[in-house]
């Protein structure tokens, strides 16, 4: 499918701004959703377009992901000059003076150990379920579970005991994450907007946590939801192949003498 005329017009107007900030989620947007997160890679077309975009003048590009920073650097292999916000807005790279890598405090470690003790037997009881240990939290992954068993497990772990009640809970695609951090992709977007001194921001995302970023977009921003589901975004595209088309169109529109397909 080609991009809708309304989205093409919005992208044309957006790229005419002098300075722009293009931000995108990783899983389900730059990469297809697959069973093993360690095997995820950016679609090649999106990698090429993202790299080209990041090298254009007055064009800032960033990846905003729920993955830990070390993980996205290894799996996502972000091109040079691309800003990275990881752990749902907790960790930052290339945003100097805002560079920030999370290191747990003694109290965080105590809570995370207690969380692991709570989640481990529950996950072990459900075939296919596994725990993704992150620096600031733990995600219960159920993509490989029988559908009802996965839904049931997430409902059970959602009811945290009293001693873990301070944790932030984030939903996602076949995943529920518990974190000592309450940062969101929305707080990250606002931080980057101030850092880069622009309200001309485009954000693409596919999941529940991306809604925080859509909500934080200024009126001069553009939100693009990838795939189905309720959203605050003003535009929608079908899948990761259309993400590549959006990125390629912005490169063409932003490059003098480049033919626009
Ligand atoms: O914010 P994102 O970049 O979209 O990251 C969200 C989570 O993505 C990963 O999990 C999801 O993708 C996996 C690989 O395709 C899939 O197996 C899993 O079921 C999905 O939930 C990642 O593992 C998480 O840490 C991220 O928070």
From TrEMBL:
Cofactor: Mg(2+)
Listed EC numbers: 3.1.3.12
Keywords, sorted A to Z: Hydrolase, Magnesium, Metal-binding
Pathway where it operates: Glycan biosynthesis; trehalose biosynthesis
Entry keyword annotation includes Metal-binding: yes
Stretches of the chain forming a coiled coil according to its record: none
InterPro entries the UniProt entry points to: HAD-like_sf, HAD_sf, OTSB-like, Trehalose_PPase
One Pfam family linked to the record: Trehalose_PPase
Catalytic activity: alpha,alpha-trehalose 6-phosphate + H2O = alpha,alpha-trehalose + phosphate
GO annotation, biological process: trehalose biosynthetic process
One Gene Ontology molecular-function label: metal ion binding
Function as written in the Swiss-Prot or TrEMBL entry: Removes the phosphate from trehalose 6-phosphate to produce free trehalose.
Family, as annotated: Belongs to the trehalose phosphatase family.
Stated name of the protein: Trehalose 6-phosphate phosphatase
């Amino acid at each position: 499918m080609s991009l809708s005329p309304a989205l093409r017009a919005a992208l044309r107007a957006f790229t005419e701004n002098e300075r722009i900030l293009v931000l995108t989620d990783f899983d389900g947007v730059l990469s297809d959703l697959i069973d093993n997160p360690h095997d995820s890679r950016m679609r090649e077309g999106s990698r090429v377009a993202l790299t080209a975009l990041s090298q254009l003048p007055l064009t800032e590009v960033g990846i905003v992901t729920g993955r830990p920073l070390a993980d996205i650097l290894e799996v996502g292999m972000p091109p040079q000059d691309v800003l990275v916000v990881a752990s749902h807005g907790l960790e930052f790279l290339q945003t100097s003076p805002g560079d920030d890598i999370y290191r747990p405090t003694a109290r965080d470690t105590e809570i995370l150990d207690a969380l692991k003790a709570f989640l481990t037997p529950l996950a072990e009881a459900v075939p296919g379920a596994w725990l993704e240990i992150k620096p600031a939290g733990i995600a219960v992954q159920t993509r490989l579970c029988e559908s009802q068993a996965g839904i049931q497990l997430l409902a059970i772990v959602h009811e945290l005991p009293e001693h873990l009640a301070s944790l932030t809970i984030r939903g996602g695609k076949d995943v529920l994450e518990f974190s000592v951090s309450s940062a969101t992709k929305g707080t990250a977007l606002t931080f980057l907007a101030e850092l880069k001194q622009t309200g001309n921001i485009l954000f693409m995302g596919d999941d529940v946590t991306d809604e925080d970023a859509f909500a934080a977009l200024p009126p001069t921003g553009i939100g693009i939801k990838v795939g189905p589901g309720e959203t605050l975004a003003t535009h929608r595209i079908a899948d990761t192949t259309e993400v590549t088309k959006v990125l390629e169109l912005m490169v063409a529109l932003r490059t003098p003498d480049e033919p626009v397909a």
